[in-house]
Amino acid sequence: MGQKFNFKEWCDEWLKTSGINTLEPQVELHANQSLSQLKIKQFIDPAGENRLRKSKVDIGVYDQNYKLHLIKDFVLSDTNAINTVTANFLKQMNYTGPVKAVILNEGDHVYSKVRFDNNTLRSFKQDGLKIEEPLTRALIWRNMWQQVLDLKLSSTEFFNFLLTNLPREGTEGTLRDQMRNAGSLIAFFLPIDMQSKSRA
């Protein structure tokens, strides 16, 4: 956590505050779709007595074949909302080719919501969910649905994502959760003209 890490202050950040923060990647790509710059913005949720929190996250960078290239142990600041992933961390990947997706909180070690950059969302729409690791797939499913609840992803976009990827989902818990979300989506979020068609 760094030389100036204060364990008591860190405990107070997590144990004496409430609310969940959101992590959003700010991704810049070169013309060949390789990674040029990566920043992480930490949003303070308006609910609860919340604040920026120091935490250590892993970042998953996925190539054209959806092979994982991992950036480990990047520390998010509790004083700055914008965190730049420096060149030394990017070198951890040992990869400089085209990027299909960037997944923050790879491994789901940190209590937070996660958003996806435009390139990652576009890849999911074009290719479907081709990441195979069940925990990462569950993280993606959960946060895609959360983006609907946060009004960052339209109900029809999530519905199309659901139709494409749910038949190929092999994890029972994820299937159960997404069937429940599908019911809520149809009942409360989809446009009226789509509701009867989706129930057919």
List the helices and strands and how they pair.
Layout: H1 7-15, E1 22-29, E2 35-43, E3 55-62, E4 68-76, E5 82-84, H2 87-91, E6 101-104, E7 113-114, H3 118-127, H4 134-149, H5 155-165, H6 172-189, H7 192-199
Parallel strand pairs: 1-7
Antiparallel strand pairs: 1-2, 2-5, 3-4, 3-6
**CATH topology-level name of the domain at 7-115:** Immunoglobulin-like
Give me the number of helical elements.
7
Strand order of the largest sheet: 5-2-1-7
Order of helices and strands: HEEEEEHEEHHHHH
Q: Specify the overall morphology.
A: globular
Report the major sheet. 4 strands, mixed
Global structural class: alpha+beta
Q: Can I get a quick summary?
A:
It is built from seven helices and seven strands, in the order H-E-E-E-E-E-H-E-E-H-H-H-H-H.
